[in-house]
Design brief:
- It is built from seven helices and 28 strands.
- It is of the alpha+beta class.
- It is elongated.
Length: 478
């Protein structure tokens, strides 16, 4: 094999390497580095020892349990881990169901559906207030003859009576009047005017129509009817009393202003019940778009109509003419009817207010000359004029979640203000004359969205609002 010739470049490179090695050796840098490293190294005082255990630990008899979910093991779900509130509500409902059948035809004892210790104070308060005149003597004289005869009977047989086997919306004919100039900016919410009356979503809220009593009645989604006596002193029940006369959502509560011992409640389960009922007629909605009139004197349905194509959500009477009613429906309309000019075969509305989506409420103003409607198309409608021909649609966000009852705008104590909840835990005040929102009621005590409201018929400036969590807030003047 021929020797490879070294180029001048390689020869020069090898020469430089040899010269550098000689230079490094003359400086003795390698020996100095070894000595420096030895002097800085920490000597080990004791060698590290390891303890060796000759005895082996015996294996555990029970193998380690691997946690697996019920779904992975093919087992049905277990409801024992529910929260304390849900379990308490479930226990309460089961105990009430064992006491009585809420869907049986006929009266049920109020003791079987009462969830507290004693409601004696509530019953005495209601009967005591009923004996006091609330309106003028000319109005009370109409009912004065029958009160004395039935007074003793009322005290001994107060119960929830089934007055109808159908219905999902109920309203009583009531008269209201009077005008007032209320400064909504002065409405305030005090801490003592906040209470949880019933568990779960509040579907309906009403004031007792009494000028001498501050009492709120609410109905929730599981069939409870709760009473909150705001004037009650701290005692056994703290002024809160709860019954469960129904097995489903309470759609309406009605209290006659001249017979306050008569409290009607209607439910989505198809039943209408009356607490301590007297003989008279009432109107209710049924099925998909039907209206019926129940006559307690005969115990039958005396008339039925089908004015809408879908479910009726509210019924309200005009204070100027008790034959004029208004209804709201899921079919997207609110209609005004004259009960005198309609029969079973022909039911024609006097006025129809159209919305793009379902209408959840339609209420006449206290004077009977205006109408307010609330719809899922994010509008609040105001209808005025001789024939309600002047219609204005005011934008308002009415789309609540599935857990919050739908907003329903109501009138205040005159035709000047409309109250409706908003999603920011406030109460919007709308002016029908300015056709816009003019003010919002806010308070740090409001911890949830108020969705249902009621204005006290006698105490001007007292407004009640209820939430989906069962809280009730009462605003007052000052």
């Amino acid at each position: 094999m021929a020797t490879q010739k070294i180029t001048d470049y390689e020869r020069k490179r090898l020469e430089n390497i040899r010269r550098n090695e000689e230079l490094m050796a003359s400086l003795k840098l390698q020996s100095m580095a070894t000595q420096l490293s030895a002097s800085t190294k920490r000597p080990r005082i004791e060698p590290k020892s390891y303890k060796v255990n000759s005895e082996k630990k015996p294996k555990t008899q029970d193998p380690t349990v691997i946690r697996r979910s019920l779904r992975c093991r093919g087992l049905p779900p277990d409801a024992k881990g529910l929260g304390a509130v849900d379990s308490m509500l479930k226990t309460t409902l089961e105990s009430m169901d064992r006491k009585c059948d809420l869907r049986k035809l006929g009266p049920i004892s109020r003791r079987d559906v009462y969830s507290g210790v004693s409601d004696r104070e509530l019953i005495e308060t209601i009967l005591g207030v009923e004996n006091k005149p609330q309106l003028g003597s000319e109005v009370k004289s109409e009912f004065g003859d029958c009160k004395e005869e039935e007074e003793e009977e009322e005290k001994s047989c107060v119960a929830f009576t089934l007055v109808g086997g159908i219905g999902c919306g109920l309203v009583k004919k009531e008269e209201d009047g009077g005008e007032s100039d209320v400064k909504v900016e002065e409405l305030s919410l005090k801490e003592e005017n906040v209470a949880r009356v019933v568990p779960g979503n509040v579907m309906n809220v009403r004031f007792f129509p009494s000028c001498s009593l501050r009492m709120v009645v609410v109905g929730n989604k599981v069939g409870n009817v709760g009473f909150w006596n705001m004037d009650s002193k701290e005692g056994e029940e703290n002024g809160i009393y709860m019954y469960r006369p129904h097995s489903g959502p309470i759609s309406r509560i009605s209290i006659h202003q001249d017979s306050m011992s008569k409290i009607f409640s209607s439910c989505y389960d198809g039943f209408i019940r009356s607490m301590d009922a007297e003989k008279e007629c009432l109107y209710f909605a049924e099925g998909r778009g039907g209206i019926g009139m129940w006559d307690e004197r005969t115990g039958n349905i005396s008339a039925q109509w089908s004015p809408h194509d879908d479910r009726i959500n509210s019924i309200d009477f005009n204070s100027l003419n008790s034959n004029i009613i208004t209804t709201s429906s899921t079919d997207g309309t609110a209609c005004i009817w004259d009960l005198r000019s309609n029969d079973a075969d022909k039911f024609k509305s006097l006025k129809t207010i159209g919305h793009k989506r379902a209408v959840h409420s339609a209420y006449f103003s206290p004077s009977g000359r205006s109408l307010v409607t609330t719809s899922l198309d994010d509008t609040v409608g105001i209808s005025t004029g001789v024939n309600f021909e002047d219609i204005s649609m005011i934008h308002h966000n009415n789309n609540t979640s599935r857990w919050i009852p739908k907003f329903k705008a109501i009138w205040g104590w005159d035709d000047a203000h409309v109250f409706v909840g908003n999603k920011n835990r406030g109460v919007d005040v709308i002016s029908p004359f300015q056709r816009t929102k003019i003010f919002t009621l806010n308070s740090p005590y409001v911890s949830a969205i108020p969705c249902r409201f009621a204005a006290h018929p006698y105490n001007v400036g007292m407004l009640a609002g209820a939430t989906g969590g069962g809280q009730v807030y009462v605003w007052t003047l000052g």
